[in-house]
């Protein structure tokens, strides 16, 4: 589908990629990159890259697998991320409120328990004083 020879890129004018291919490589950097524009699902496949660099005519071929996916517009990702982030924030707020309410309730219970203990202690002390007064009489 593509050849590079004598310093010039040659793109085949037959095949599925004709008129959609562009040479972007740099032979001085040993870069043989190409770009295929307007990909379609039918472009999926495994392709062979075979480099012959004279005078070395024997080389090992490599394979490149091309997968074409549908590109999702960014705005859908932003909206989805916002919805998920908002839901997580709501859950975090609810959990924080539950712990705050539980903390306040337990603190109030402890305060009431201390007051009740103090009142019972006071009654016992008053009862003991009353008993000692009765014993004296």
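-> sequence recovered:
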């Amino acid at each position: 589908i593509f050849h590079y020879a004598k310093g010039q890129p040659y793109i085949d004018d037959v095949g599925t990629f004709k008129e959609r291919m562009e040479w972007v490589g740099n032979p001085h950097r040993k870069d043989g990159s190409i770009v295929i524009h307007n990909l379609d699902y039918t472009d999926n496949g495994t392709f062979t890259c075979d480099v012959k660099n004279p005078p070395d005519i024997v080389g090992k071929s490599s394979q490149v697998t091309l997968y074409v996916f549908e590109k999702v517009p960014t705005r859908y990702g932003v909206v989805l991320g916002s919805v998920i982030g908002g839901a997580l924030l709501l859950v975090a707020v609810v959990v924080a409120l539950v712990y705050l309410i539980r903390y306040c309730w337990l603190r109030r219970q402890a305060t009431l328990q201390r007051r009740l203990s103090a009142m019972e202690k006071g009654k016992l002390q008053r009862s003991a004083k009353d008993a000692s007064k009765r014993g004296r009489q």
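The longest helix spans residues 74-136.
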